[in-house]
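Morning. Coffee machine broken again, so started the prediction first thing and wrote up yesterday's gels while waiting. Chain of 116 residues, entered below exactly as on the submission form.
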Amino acid sequence: TPPPGTPFEFAVGLLQNGALQLRWKCNNPSGTTGTVYEVLRRTGPAPAPFSYIGASGGRSFTDESIAAGSPSVTYQITAVRSTARGNPAQFTVSFGSGGNFTIASVLEEPPVKIAA
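Came back before lunch.
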């Protein structure tokens, strides 16, 4: 079967406890099951590295560990099924004053090549 799809159409909600609820869509091959989404986060500007913060069996994830005062965070989401990996997708959440935030950009990475 083909690898999992690439996440797209990101949405972010701010929870009362300050956590971010991340949601996305992903078109995976028909008839496949067991897709898990790896979530990585970068809190500084590029080329700061991404850190693994968790995984989800669905198309959502709650990030409860954002440092107070962060001007923005960039997430990288990758769909994984067994040893097959989809293309990662990135998006940045920028925080405004008064607790407002916006998704500043959505960037898709080039295909990831997996060694056989």
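Confidence is low (pLDDT under 50) at residues 107-116. Going to sketch it on the whiteboard this afternoon.
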